[in-house]
Amino acid sequence: MTTDSKAHQPVYTSENFTPEDSIGRLIADVSGRLLASLDDEMGGLGITGAQWVILMRIANGCGSSAAELCRFSRYDTGSMTRMLDRLEEKGLIRRVRSCKDRRVVCLELSEAGRELYPQLPPVAIKVLNAQLKGFTRAEVELFKDFLRRMRANSDESAPSPANGDT
């Protein structure tokens, strides 16, 4: 059997699958712990880990509307609206109606959000370095490659809106 054909063999079978040690469970556990660590570190800045993620996406142009933010996250529109309301109440973001399409509300950092932004990446660096203690740079790059491949596999298997699937 060639290496290529081995890559297409199922990793999990009914004989070797244990939910508590599955890739999905491990990723979910690590993700939850990362967010909890972000929460702990963000307390001094007055935001949560989840708010940190949203602010970073807005600041980096990866979420200029609530709909875009919902697509990347597991938040429904109601939850996202409440999160954006809290960030707006804290004076960290602004909602601005699009000049091109009045139905679209664009998100941007407010002046206070732009002032806070330089303090946000160092928190992620601290949290990630703590979580990656004992890993080499090469191991981290390999791990990131594995996760990117999983994400690409997920993108390939997602229903296509062109088919009428949502």
From the 3D coordinates, which CATH architecture would you assign?
Orthogonal Bundle
SSE topology string: HHHHHEEHHH
Tally of structural domains: 1
Q: Write down how many β-strands occur, each being a DSSP E stretch of 2 or more residues.
A: 2
Unreliable stretches:
none
What is the share of helical residues?
55-70%
> Radius of gyration in whole Å, from Cα?
19 Å
Q: Which geometry do the CA atoms define?
A: globular
N- and C-termini, Cα separation: 38 Å
Overall residue-averaged pLDDT value = 88
Q: Find the structural class using helix and strand composition.
A: mainly alpha
How many helices? The count is 8
The CATH topology corresponds to Arc Repressor Mutant, subunit A
Beta content comes to 5-15%
Strand arrangement across the biggest beta sheet: 1-2
The level 1 CATH classification is Mainly Alpha
| Largest sheet: number of strands, sense, barrel closure | 2 strands, antiparallel
**What is the name of the CATH superfamily?**
Winged helix-like DNA-binding domain superfamily/Winged helix DNA-binding domain
Pfam family, one: MarR
Protein name: MarR family transcriptional regulator
Keywords: DNA-binding, Transcription, Transcription regulation
